[in-house]
Each structure stands twice: as structure tokens, then as C-alpha cells.
Amino acid sequence: MQHGGTISVSLRNLIRKANRDERGVTGLETAIILIAFVVVATVFAFIVLTTGIFSAERGKETVFAGLQKARGTMEVRGGVVVNATTITAGPPEVATAGTIQFSVATTAGGEPVPLDPTSTSNRTVIAYRDAAILLDDVPYTATEIVGDGDTLLEPGELFTISVDIADLTGATLNPNDRFTFEIQTPVGAVIDLTRSLPADLDTVMQLH
């Protein structure tokens, strides 16, 4: 009888030990699953954060590019001056516009602007239009008034732009005519310069 009791006790001990081992294995599996969840969540959070930062940077670059394009880099300083050319001595004397001149400078915080009309790339283009014609790229001269000797308009410098109407194919500006110059710099907004000639032209006149 004692042997039977001893066997029963040993059997119960083995069962309890097996149960403890099973609980230990179950706890280990649970810990592994929790760790896996934490790792996956961390990786997912990192991906989301990285994507958000990248999107924010791209958005900021787009905004800055848009602001740079919308913001003017060059502005007209002073008035627009027309030099008249006498067609007939008269009487009555008939005059037409000969040369249009205006001065330009960079805006506050603006980028340097190339003003070499002979350059084949990265240059400032001037378009002309009136009631009769439209010219996308007209010849002009850029004369340095204040600068360091090159053709790059930089902060603190001043250039005078001159357009000879005689060089514009098909263009004639008579009294009361209205004309527009569109100054298109490589970077920045387009400058729209529109003026009207008075009924009578003097040799040199400032247009308003």
C-alpha cells in the first residue's frame, strides 16, 4: 500500500510540474508576441514619421519655389523716358518715338539678374506689344549706371535699359499710341511696363 501511495504522489508531482512548464512556455510565447508587436509598431511609426518629414520638406521646397517665382527680383526705378524722332520738319512737324529708356535695379532680397542681351541662355528677355504687333524677343541695350563692370545686375547696382523702336520690325509709335514691354527675368515675376504717348512729343519726355 505504501508503494501505491508513493506512486500516486509522484504522479501528481509530475502533473503539477508539467502544468508549470506549460504555463512557462505560454508566458514565453506571450512575451515574444508582445515584443513582435512593439517592434512592428516601432517600425511603422518610423516609416510614418519619415514619410511625414519628407512630405513636409517637399512641401516647403514647393512653397519656397512658388514664392521665389512670384516675388519679383527686379524693379523699374524712376520714370520711362522717350526720345522722339522727327519724321518731317513741317509745318506741321511730325514726331514719333525713337528710343524708350528706363532704369532697373534688384528688389530687396532679390537675386542677381543677367542683363546681357547677346547671351544665348539664362538671360533677360524683353517682349513688346502694341495695338498692331507682338514681338516676343526684342533687341535692347543695358548700360551700367552703378555697378562693378559686368552685365549682372546685383543688389545696389543700377542699369538703364534702352529699346530703339527702329530695331523692332513693324513697330511705329506715334502720338497717343499705347505700348507695353514685358520684362522676363530668368527667375522671378514678369514686369509689365505699359505707357501711352502724349498727343505731342517733345525731343525728350518722361511718360506717366
Number of domains: 2
Work out the radius of gyration: 40 Å
Proportion of beta-strand residues: 25-35%
Distance between the termini: 128 Å
From N to C, what is the helix and strand string?
Answer: HEEEEEEEEEEE
Note the overall shape.
rod-shaped
- What is the CATH class of the largest domain? Mainly Beta
Structural class: alpha+beta
What can be said about the biggest beta sheet? 5 strands, antiparallel
CATH superfamily of the largest domain: Immunoglobulins
Round the mean pLDDT to the nearest integer and report it: 81
Outline the low-pLDDT stretches: 63-67
| Helical content class | 25-40%
Number of helices: 1
Topology, number of strands: 11
Widest sheet, order of strands: 6-8-2-1-11
Query: What is the CATH-assigned architecture of the largest domain?
Result: Sandwich
In short:
The protein starts with a helix and ends with a strand. It has one helix spanning 2-70; strands at residues 74-88, 94-106, 113-114, 125-130, 134-135, 141-146, 152-153, 158-164, 178-184, 191-196, 204-207. It is 33% helix and 34% strand.
Characterize the structure shown:
The protein has two domains: 1-70; 74-207, Immunoglobulin-like. It contains one helix and eleven strands. It has one helix spanning 2-70, and strands at residues 74-88, 94-106, 113-114, 125-130, 134-135, 141-146, 152-153, 158-164, 178-184, 191-196, 204-207. The strands form three sheets. The chain has a five-stranded antiparallel β-sheet with strand order 6-8-2-1-11, with no helix packed on it. Strands 5-4-9-10 form a four-stranded antiparallel β-sheet, with no helix packed on it. Strands 3-7 form a two-stranded antiparallel sheet. The longest helix has 69 residues, at 2-70. The radius of gyration is 40 Å and the shape is rod-shaped. The protein starts with a helix and ends with a strand. The relative contact order is 0.15.
